[in-house]
Amino acid sequence: MARVVLEVRNVTKRFGGLVAVNDMSFDVTQHEVLGIIGPNGSGKSTMINMISGTFPPSAGVIRLNGQDVAGKPAHRIAQMGVARTFQLVRLLPELTVIENVVAGAAFGHRRRWKGEAERYAQTLLDRVGLGGVMNVPVSSLTYINTKRVELARALACEPEVLLLDEWLAGLNPTELQTGIDLIRSLREDGRTVILVEHVMDAIRSLCDRCVVMSSGCKIAEGTPADVLSDAEVIRAYLGADEDA
Ligand SMILES: Nc1ncnc2c1ncn2[C@@H]1O[C@H](COP(=O)(O)OP(=O)(O)OP(=O)(O)O)[C@@H](O)[C@H]1O
Fold first, then answer.
1. 168 and 77 share a domain?
2. Mean pLDDT of 84-104
3. Which domain range does residue 128 map to?
4. Dihedral angle at the C-alpha atoms of 202, 204, 209, 215, nearest 10 degrees?
5. Ligand 1 pocket test, candidate residues 12, 14, 18, most atoms within 8 A of CB
6. Mapping DSSP to helix (H, G, I), strand (E, B) and coil, where does residue 30 land?
7. Which of 53, 83, 99, 125 could form a disulfide with 159 if both were Cys (CB 3.0 to 4.6 A apart)?
8. Is 191 found in the same domain as 146?
9. Are 55 and 175 found together in one domain?
10. Hey, is 177 helix, strand or coil?
11. How many CA atoms lie within 13 A of 149 on its CB side?
12. In this predicted complex, what is the ipTM?
């Protein structure tokens, strides 16, 4: 049976009077690509932010390989094996492409330094399609290339669980296909990934399972085909459109 890598149990997050995440529970098993989907404002990023340690849950337990990570600082959770990308790309703009990725190798789960970190960063940059621009400042890159750097930096942490928060957002149709192919190749490598995503083609083609959130709660869980045909899920999305 597949090993559970990440356990989320009865996790709630309150911001003052607002319950952004309400009693969420789910597991992520090794080598699985789990999608977290739901309308805007349903609590997906808040869930990811608690797993990666951006802020602590108000209640509940998050375990990585059986160890409680809830409320630990982000750098500690990164060392324990969780790496992420951000909805709005966050890089060190004054550094080069490779320097940004080496930074990931130095602060991640399996730490590498100096020559070893650089060699590993080069391999990852080749992997994400940036082999030719390793030494340029990230400030000179196109948008999709900044996303690739962020992905390589997260991979450089050698995470047990990789969190991709709307990594495909803002890409044009050609780039989108490239991006989906890249995430598929991670899946083929056997990585364990949580994908927060609005692009349903990506969800359908990449995810083994999905958790659907609405107003902070889990309203469905299952294969993409099952949850996307679920009446409550359809209602949650249509309701969101009507509100927009
Ligand atoms: N730091 C914060 N302080 C206060 N409220 C917050 C904070 N972060 C999120 N929220 C609120 O929590 C709710 C859930 O937001 P969240 O960003 O998690 O949703 P989401 O599903 O990721 O949305 P989207 O798909 O638009 O990114 C929203 O009402 C949001 O305004």
1. yes
2. 81
3. 92-157
4. 70
5. 18
6. coil
7. 83
8. no
9. yes
10. helix
11. 30
12. 0.97
**pTM for the model:** 0.91
- Decide which of 117, 136, 157 is a domain's last residue: 157
Domain contains 87: no
Radius of gyration of the chain measured on its C-alpha atoms? 18
For 79-186, where are the E strands, in sequence order?
Answer: 82-85, 161-165
What residue's CA is closest to ligand 1, atom 4? 15
Name residues contacting ligand 1 (CB within 6 A).
Answer: 15, 18, 20, 38, 40-46
Domain count, the chain: 2
Q: Do both 142 and 238 map to the same domain?
A: no
Q: How far is the CA of 56 from the centre of ligand 1 (A)?
A: 14
Q: Which of 47-61, 102-116, 191-205 has the lowest mean pLDDT?
A: 102-116
Tokens linked to 113: 């330094």
**What would the pLDDT profile of 186-196 be if each residue is shown by its tens digit?**
988 899 999 99
Q: Which of 11, 14, 46, 52 gets mutated to test ligand 1 (max ligand atoms within 8 A of its CB)?
A: 46
**Cα 181-122-92 angle, rounded to 5 deg:** 90
Whose alpha carbon is nearest atom 31 of ligand 1? 41
The neighbour count for residue 90, using CB atoms within 10 Å, is 12
For residue 48, the ligand 1 atom closest to its alpha carbon is: 18
β-pair partners for 63: 7, 68
In eight-state DSSP terms, residue 213 is E
Q: Any idea how long the chain is?
A: 244
